[in-house]
Amino acid sequence: MASQNIYILGIESSCDDTAASVMHNGRILSNVVANQKIHEEYGGVVPELASRAHQQNIVPVVAQALKKANITKDQLHAIAFTRGPGLMGSLLVGTSFAKSLAYGLHIPLIDVNHMQGHILAHFIDEEGFNKPPFPFLAMTISGGHTQIVRVDNYFDMTVIGETIDDAVGEAFDKSGKILGLGYPAGPEIDKRAKLGNPKAFKFTKPRVDGLNFSFSGLKTAILYFIQNETKANPNFIEENLNDICASIQYTIIGILIDKLKLAVKQTGIKHIAIGGGVSANSGIRQALKDGEQKFGWTTYVPKFEFTTDNAAMIAIVGYLKYLEGDFAEQNVAASARLKI
């Protein structure tokens, strides 16, 4: 990408993970993430606790990222940080830290849209991983987001479909809560789904026009279904847990694939890139791979550590913006509802 030696520090603090990453000319030298276990007790992220934990974690996480990359802060060319979208208190911690560090080192500050980070994670130089050619369709699926984006260039992106209520990650977590599983429930549902029959129970898919998604109706349908079945048989959940998980996962994957098929049909674009924490789900990965045979598309999935919230994806956007000289002013403000 570039002949010079460019070191970028990426900082990510949009939700409950404090992350820092050092990139050298498009390659990742370190990618450090501090998870916040405290939210498991509450069955979801508590914003106030998240921002406090970021304040405790950010200095050691950045120090560790620099140490692992084997460079000093004086070798950095720019600081890239997540400006939004996300939880306001969490974003403020990362934004303030990045601004102070860039100011103190007299180097450029680069603001990054978290959603662009998930998409451009595909352009991190990583052996064995192909980069999607432009134009491509990006499906970003996470705890807070579900979007289909048409990507014509690094910074020419158009959202062509998104959720009108819950994100896909919420659908997994809320279904898990109904079943009495821990938080986050997605990985547990995925694990159990492998042992169950995906067609044991039928849930209706919500009807939503165009390329938009809706998951709140499905969550309600699952709730009523479980309530009715447990009335008749109090042991219904434990006797059928694997089949219930498999059926829920099968329905959610069906919703995602149906919309992707429609997006491919409408745009004529057959390169599909996937990102976001829920893309770790083995059923979704398999369905996308199967789609290569069935629908003739090509899929791109980044390395696992670059799919969930991480700072490597912020660093790559920072690097690409650095090459274009696209820097932020010191008065740049965090934005909880930042759009692509």
UniProtKB/TrEMBL annotation:
It is found in: Cytoplasm. Keywords: Acyltransferase, Cytoplasm, Iron, Metal-binding, Transferase, tRNA processing. GO terms for cellular component: cytoplasm. Its EC number is 2.3.1.234. It catalyses: L-threonylcarbamoyladenylate + adenosine(37) in tRNA = N(6)-L-threonylcarbamoyladenosine(37) in tRNA + AMP + H(+). Residues 28-315 form the Gcp-like domain. Its cofactor is Fe(2+). CDD domains: ASKHA_NBD_TsaD_bac. One of its GO terms (molecular function) is iron ion binding. The keyword Manganese does not apply. Its main location: cytoplasm. Fe cation binds at residues 114, 118, 309. HAMAP family: TsaD (MF_01445). Required for the formation of a threonylcarbamoyl group on adenosine at position 37 (t(6)A37) in tRNAs that read codons beginning with adenine. Is involved in the transfer of the threonylcarbamoyl moiety of threonylcarbamoyl-AMP (TC-AMP) to the N6 group of A37, together with TsaE and TsaB. TsaD likely plays a direct catalytic role in this reaction. This is tRNA N6-adenosine threonylcarbamoyltransferase. It comes from Mariniflexile fucanivorans.
